[in-house]
Specification:
The complex is a heterodimer. By secondary structure, chain A is α/β, with parallel strands linked by helices. Chain A is 34% helix and 14% strand. In chain A, helix 1 (30-46) crosses helix 9. In chain B, the strands form four sheets. In chain B, strands 1, 2, 3, 4, 5, 16, 17 and 18 form an eight-stranded mixed β-sheet that branches. Chain B has a five-stranded parallel β-sheet with strand order 9-10-13-14-15. Classes of the chains: A alpha/beta, B alpha/beta.
Chain lengths: 325, 434
């Protein structure tokens, strides 16, 4: 486990040793971000080895509770917990008592009775993770609550940016598309601002709500940025007849990211799943400029780092708590 | 037939040494007030005590009791949330001598027999007199007028589809035209549903940041504009409920200046809070209309101060705990307010010098009474005693367990307020004493 000691030294421990949650990017300091990214880096190194499983969280219980469908987030959390030797159960709304009308409160209290160390929650409504955090003794990780926050996505995006650019500060990122329905956008803007980078939100007026960051309705605003971060048009969240845009085709002609709109040297990111040909052309998604698969890979190690960080007192305590393999 | 149902009394009381404050009567003096058989008989000093219940009120303020024109008593249908007894007990504890109940019950009060039944129950159960509003349209569905004449004959205090807007302008126009022969107040909830659908919070920076769909100010003000025009065209009065938006106040101001018979009310929460309060995503800050930004709040305060808005109304809206212990977007709209209205306004607006005490007292009492044609609570010899005794300096904490309401969905839970109701005399009877 010597690789875990790499993160010690210059990095500060978390400000408090009380039970912590990861509910919103606004819970994080710059030091927290650095500590988590450093841990993720050391876990990435560990994943190069033949035996990928670490004993770090042996005996710990991680519950993944998903009230919304998810591929990347749920599979990466499950795998992250397993790679750290935690016991893990993934519960989905379909096929559980949620379908029988159990309230979020009762589900949270029921699951808490198993004394989990971490509850990872995805839920279609803002504030669900806060609610569960108030009801349980577990640490709670918000894996997406409605259109509100998705802090683990923001952290994996920062990890991807650092791997690509070698730095986090001074980057210009254009976030393009359906910002209104995007928790990814809300978390990412806060995260970029926290590390000294800037975001501009680009899209049609009704999909750019106030209160998030600077906006432009002109796709030309992506011309000078380092990264074009493309958001999915969230058809499932858009009320029928809401008329945010006349049609996906019209959206795509005005704002779709095509090879012609990407300047050499720019990178393209997307939180997935991609609607190819709607917000992002397949050619671009598969091109050298695309960081989409880097993001997916980052998801695993960053989520390992998040679980590790919440369940240990931080890097200062690593040598005291880590067992030798 | 009086419009209010509930207890009246013939108590013999002397309130001694209070600062007696009735802004409408022009009284502000340290006086004793004598009440014989429920009627004020003497204002003076060193009054004989006889066999009367003597209340030592040194350092307290005695004012006309409050009138709340907007209370959801949840009866019939949701007696788990509030009953006539519990809601009127909460009203008494809040200093109210009369309240008006909103008819959006289950079923709605659109039937004279149901209305008569409620009035009979209030006679038996209520702690303070209650007036019952009736639905303006059948089932509050907004398409066919309810039998306004029969409902008026059965004792409807006013008509309202509150909780829902009357979306169709043509229906609203017919209601106003027909009301020319009925003559009861019509109170409207102004909301344009195609602008507010899916909205849970004011469409502004805070909702944008939180990812909550917006309920824009325009969703209210376009309907206020429409209703002011309808009141003008039909020549019939209209009352606008729980205003929340600056633009609504502008429509109201213009209408009143042009002589249109339009009145309005505002809630304590819209006067005290902004949408900053929803950052915690606590469903006890979720109301309809929603809390808005400070420019809206300031416009409401200015309109209340200058009388453009005549009345404070709590929009007391009890909800079961389980219904509010859910994420913000799933939670129902509404908060309770009867027991905290005066304390909140005193703490948030009077103490910091934003509104004068006299203004708040008038808008909580004479203002709403005038809008709804109710007897004005006043401190004058020969009138039935409707009085509230206030301790302006008392600091107290809002405890869920101590609320008289059956529900605890208050935005002030565990908060400290300054200004407390010590006694309420409603219709000549002591309804509350603490």
């Amino acid at each position: 486990m010597t690789d875990l000691r790499l993160v010690g030294g210059q990095l500060l421990p978390p400000a408090t040793r009380e039970r912590r949650h990861l509910l919103s990017v606004s819970d994080l300091t710059r030091d927290d971000v650095e500590r988590i990214l450093a841990a993720a880096r050391s876990f990435a190194d560990s994943q190069e080895r033949e035996t990928k499983k670490l004993p770090t969280l042996r005996g710990r219980v991680v519950l993944n509770v998903f009230y919304e469908s998810s591929t990347r987030t749920s599979s990466s959390f499950e795998l992250a917990a397993k790679r750290l030797s935690a016991d893990t159960v993934t519960l989905r709304a379909s096929g559980s008592s949620v379908e029988k009308g159990e309230s979020l409160k009762d589900t949270a209290l029921t699951l808490s009775a198993y004394d989990p160390d971490v509850i990872v929650l995805r839920h279609p409504e803002a504030g669900a993770a806060e609610l569960v955090a108030r009801l349980t003794n577990a640490r709670v990780v918000n894996a997406g609550d409605g259109k509100h926050q998705h802090p683990t996505q923001a952290l994996l995006d920062l990890y991807t940016l650092r791997n690509t650019f070698g730095r986090l500060d001074g980057l210009q990122v254009a976030i393009v598309g359906d910002v209104a329905h995007s928790r990814v956008a809300r978390s990412l803007v806060q995260a970029l601002n926290l590390v000294g980078s800037q975001a501009i939100l680009v899209g049609p007026p009704a999909l750019l709500p106030p209160g998030i960051g600077p906006t432009s309705h002109d796709i030309q605003a992506i011309a000078d940025v380092d990264v074009i971060y493309v958001l999915r048009m969230q058809r499932e969240r858009i009320l029928e007849g809401a008329n945010f845009v006349p049609s996906l085709g019209e959206y795509s002609r005005r704002y779709g990211i095509t090879a012609a709109r990407v300047r050499p040297g720019q990178f393209v990111m997307h939180p997935g799943p991609i609607n190819r040909g709607v917000e992002l052309d397949g050619d671009v998604a598969d091109s050298e400029a695309s960081l989409v698969l880097e993001q997916v890979r980052a998801g695993l190690v960053v989520r390992m780092a998040i679980l590790y960080d919440l369940l240990t007192a931080g890097p200062v305590a690593v040598e005291a708590t880590v067992e030798t393999a | 037939m009086t419009i209010l149902s509930g207890p009246t009394g013939a108590d013999d009381i002397i309130v001694r040494g209070a600062r007696v404050l009735d802004p409408v009567e022009g009284i502000d003096a340290s006086l004793d007030v004598r009440i014989d058989r429920g009627v004020i008989t003497q204002l003076g000093t060193s009054l004989d005590t006889n066999e009367h219940h003597v209340v030592d009120a040194e350092g307290l303020v005695l004012a006309p009791a409050f009138v709340d024109p907007h209370v959801h008593l949840r009866t019939p249908g949701r007696e788990d949330e509030e009953t006539i007894a519990s809601g009127t007990a909460a009203a008494a504890a809040g200093g109210y001598c009369a309240i008006l109940a909103i008819p959006n019950t289950e079923p709605p009060v659109d039937d004279p027999a149901l209305l008569r039944g409620l009035r009979a129950r209030a006679e038996a159960e209520a702690h303070v007199p209650v007036g019952f509003m009736a639905a303006l349209t059948k089932a509050q569905a907004g398409s066919e007028l309810a039998e306004l004449g029969a409902l008026a004959d059965a004792g409807a205090a006013a008509f309202s589809d509150d909780g829902r807007p009357v979306t169709a302008a043509g229906v609203m126009r017919r209601a106003l035209q027909y009301n020319a022969i009925i003559g009861r107040p019509i109170a409207v909830h102004c909301e344009e549903p195609t602008l507010t659908r899916g909205g849970h919070a004011h469409a502004g920076d805070v909702a944008g940041e939180l990812g909550i769909d917006g309920w824009p100010a325009l969703g209210e003000s376009v309907m206020v504009g429409r209703d002011v025009e309808l009141a003008d065209e039909t020549g019939q009065p209209i009352h606008l409920m729980h205003l929340s938006a600056r633009e609504s106040v502008e429509h109201l101001r213009r209408g009143r200046a042009a002589g249109v018979a339009v009145t309005a009310e505002v809630t304590p929460h819209h006067l005290c809070l902004t949408d900053d309060a929803i950052r915690t995503l606590d469903p006890n800050f979720k109301m309809n209309p929603p809390l808005r930004s400070d420019d809206h709040r300031t416009a409401l305060i200015d309109a209340l101060r200058d009388g453009t808005i005549a009345a404070v109304a709590t929009d007391h809206a009890p909800h079961a705990t389980a219904e509010k212990e859910v994420p913000f977007e799933s939670a129902p709209f509404g908060v309770i307010g009867l027991e905290t209205a005066f304390g909140a306004l005193n703490t948030y607006l009077v103490e910091p010098g934003v509104l004068r005490l006299e203004t708040v007292l008038e808008r909580m009492s004479a203002g709403p009474a005038a809008v709804f044609g109710l007897e004005r609570p006043r401190i004058a010899v020969g009138t039935r005693a409707n009085l509230v005794l206030l301790d302006l300096r008392a600091s107290w904490r809002v405890h869920a367990a101590k609320l008289r309401s059956r529900s605890t969905n208050s935005w002030l839970l565990d908060q400290r307020l300054t200004g407390r109701v010590r006694m309420t005399i409603a219709a000549g009877r002591v309804a509350h004493e603490s």
